[in-house]
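Re: the 358-residue chain
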Amino acid sequence: MSTPSPDVYEQGRGMDAHNQAMREIRGRNDESHDPREPTRVWLDEDNTPDGVYDSLTIILNTGGCRWARAGGCTMCGYVAESVDGGTVAHEDLMRQIEICLEHEEENADEPAGQIKIYTSGSFLDEREIPAKTRQAIAETFADRDRMVVESLPDFVDEEKIHDFTDRGVETDIAVGLETATDQIRHDCINKYFDFSEFERAAEAAQKAGAGIKAYLLMKPPFLSESEAIEDMKRSIRRCAAVEGCHTVSMNPTNVQEFTMVEQLYFDDGYRPPWLWSVAEVLESTAEEDVIVVSDPVGHGSDRGAHNCGECDDRVQRAIKDFDLRQDPSVFEQVSCDCERTWEEVCKRERSYSMPLVR
């Protein structure tokens, strides 16, 4: 199994250049964060195998992803929001949970049926979330219907998952797979594991009574628009064939601070994906035996997935509608003149001479 440490690139994986560049970029960040305050918390709706659920989404402030400390993924700036020093005490993490529950009580009519917990790295990495804390969190939410926690495949094992499933909570492990293509994951995203390790994690989750939710990345750096579209279609179909993987969340790349993507963006070497591309992938894979959803962060802005500016909100609403109903006909109800520009970009843009337009 791959080891998420600086030693990875010394094993002939060719990641040393990416990691060195990103450690330098991340070193420009001088912000600090309160270990007793969650990074973010909000209420929303999610499509699940059991229907649409109200969700309480929690991003815990931890010591950060250990792979990001080594260099990390080219697009991910979440480690910049993590606590200095590498660890957060159990008491501080539980205080963050209390704050999130207070937010829910103030803003929801009733407790959400689904809880989603993320960190800047892996919830199942015991350096970020100690076993004691994981078990306390499992006990706190034992009365909810569903639970989603995010982790790299390295840390997915049956014993940890049983903390949730043994309490009768339907549990999903969300894995940041990004793409089913190993070369793209390694060379464009700088993520160290192979697709086979995602399959192993899915098997372990199934044995513990949990499901798998795959997170894919739409248009990592160094891919043209058409290459990104085809990679997502191929990746969704390959994920759908993995037993236990019932949901794919396709996340269009947004330009986050202190990342290689941001540096490319400022040097005119990167444009986030078109919203038309997101719609194209969703429409083309709607018949696959898997729930496919997308939530373009920062849609309509230069740093997020966008079209021309005139139609962005309409297309975003159609994407959200599709997420909840899985009905591709919603995209027949939106159109704009900029579709012609997008079509030409898909035909003409090449990965060695992009972006063609901004």
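Confidence is low (pLDDT under 50) at residues 8-13.
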